[in-house]
Design a protein that fits this description.
Pfam family, one: Isochorismatase
Number of helices: 7
Number of domains: 1
Helix content: 25-40%
Protein name: Nicotinamidase-related amidase
InterPro entries: Isochorismatase-like_dom, Isochorismatase-like_sf, Isochorismatase_domain
CATH class: Alpha Beta
Strand order of the largest sheet: 3-2-1-4-5-6
Order of helices and strands: EHEHEHEHEHEHH
CATH architecture: 3-Layer(aba) Sandwich
Organism: Methylobacterium pseudosasicola
Largest sheet: 6 strands, parallel
Amino acid sequence: MPLIDPARALLLVIDVQVRLMPAIADGAGVIANTNRLAAAAGLLDVPALFTEQNAGGLGPTVPELAPEPGAAFAKMSFGAAQAPGFLDRVGDRDLVVTGCEAHICVLQTVFGLLDAGRRAFVVADAVGSRRPENRDAGLARMAAHGAEIVTTEMVMFEWLGTARHPRFREAVKLIK
């Protein structure tokens, strides 16, 4: 089924780190939409995993997202799927992917996930790069190779499935 099933999903937040985000075009928008998705994931029992690229150089995940203890995966490789233990952490879940940079770490991680047989949903309004043309090229290349390009609202409403969902009103408040 092409819809994102919350029972099979995992929110993957790639490298939204304190020293990187000031350089990202519309970094505030990437953080805001990732925060909405993280809050919705919490409401709907969708697990989340955060990666941190070279945390010694780029710092931890931004405080606005404050991952749970143990929810950050340290890596040095640009593609997280190539890092030892990463695929074990994500299991066979479908990945809803946000983060930076779209044309480097997001792209290489998504390609690794696709190569490993996982479904990847890349959230266009929650990924960024230092230059918009790099972001756009990364999204186009991922789509051409099998990633599904979605938006924050698409993900949230697919996770909800119905206006009768018991957490519908709480989730909708995250969008408005």
